[in-house]
Amino acid sequence: MTTAPKDADRVIIFDTTLRDGEQSPGATMTFEEKLEVTDVLVEMGVDVIEAGFPIASEGDFESVLEISKRAKDSVICGLARAHFKDIDRCAEAIKPARRGRIHTFIGTSPLHRKYQMQLDEEAVFERVVASVTRARSYTDDVEWSAMDATRTEPDYLCRCVEAAIKAGATTINIPDTVGYATPEEYGALIKMLRERVPNADKVIFSTHCHDDLGLAVANSLAGVANGARQIECTINGLGERAGNAALEEVVMAIRTRKDVLPYSTGIDTTMLMRASKLVSAVSAFPVQYNKAIVGRNAFAHESGIHQDGMLKNAQTFEIMTPESVGVKATSLVMGKHSGRHAFREKLKDLGYQLGENALEDAFMRFKALADRKKNVYDEDIEALVDDEVAHADD
Ligand code: KIV
Ligand code: ZN
């Protein structure tokens, strides 16, 4: 089985909101909530859904099983450590899937080998071969991850990747588990692996970047520029510590900057806002106001210069349309930085038609109010104008 789309520039979107995302402290979702998120991910066109870690708990097993029965249009993936009991449990959970994937991983860096597992290089290497071989006995869609790949000795990483491919892995994932890499380093790592490892062209290379230094999206895109064709990401960038690469950001970067990122995804971007709101609600993780793409302020403008530009031509201050990510419209937020042009438009929207003098008076009073008040709402402006009109009648 192959999950690789035919087009060489098509990037597979692997969503791990339900696995790595749910591992954020406090982001636990109920069974029903996971199904709700799954339905949105499928409808949005996510290629691979990492539905959970079946050995982790009975609940995780049950949700991966149910998602495998329910979501027939995406590949359903379960995570497993390099232990046969993990892999066997994962295989059971993904069995009903039309297309099921086992994702098995092991720490390859010296730190992980020594402190996490107390295993030497050879012992880890043997586990790579054994785990991928075991997973392949259940499905021909096997992903192997070198946890902490970016802090692993390059020669040893090449050896492990080569062994995983030989044992039957079809996707090779290169996690920047602790968000340590820079885009140049991460891109170079993918390039080096693709050049040095035999049969690298027979598999899909995948990025899995954490955001500890705020570089997860940049690193993922650098990986793609160097030949990776799968990006692992989460809605709202949910995930361990500072989170994972945000799905909405990688997808919109690819869509918006085709000139320098000549790739495509299968995502219906008009569903991004809906997905963001749902994941924020079920995980109880609020989305920061200025978050790229889905933040409340991502399409809001307050300064007079920006509002004036937006009223003349939206491209002056917006590089994508709000509609393209499922936001109804740009919002011109009225505040102390707003100018006359935006104020006049706001009055028109609210149904007022004032003469020039009344408008000027109302604008001055609005400015004075905005200086005192952090947020000026439509009701404030209505009250102010009604008062203005009443005075004019006196
Ligand atoms: O960050 C990581 O290394 C992971 C692996 C399990 C793929 O989440
Ligand atoms: Zn991770």
From TrEMBL:
Cofactor: Mn(2+)
Example of a GO biological process term: L-leucine biosynthetic process
Domain of life: Bacteria
Pathway participation: Amino-acid biosynthesis; L-leucine biosynthesis; L-leucine from 3-methyl-2-oxobutanoate: step 1/4
EC number: 2.3.3.13
One Gene Ontology MF term: 2-isopropylmalate synthase activity
Domain Pyruvate carboxyltransferase intervals: 11-273
Any one annotated GO CC term: cytosol
Key words, A-Z: Amino-acid biosynthesis, Branched-chain amino acid biosynthesis, Cytoplasm, Leucine biosynthesis, Manganese, Metal-binding, Transferase
Enzyme class label: transferase
Annotated positions binding Mn(2+): D20, H208, H210, N244
Catalytic activity as recorded in UniProt: 3-methyl-2-oxobutanoate + acetyl-CoA + H2O = (2S)-2-isopropylmalate + CoA + H(+)
Complex and partners: Homodimer.
Function recorded in the entry: Catalyzes the condensation of the acetyl group of acetyl-CoA with 3-methyl-2-oxobutanoate (2-ketoisovalerate) to form 3-carboxy-3-hydroxy-4-methylpentanoate (2-isopropylmalate).
Family statement: Belongs to the alpha-IPM synthase/homocitrate synthase family. LeuA type 1 subfamily.
UniProt-recorded name of the protein: 2-isopropylmalate synthase
Organism: Terrihabitans soli
Residue numbers of the full-length protein present here: 1 to 394 of 517
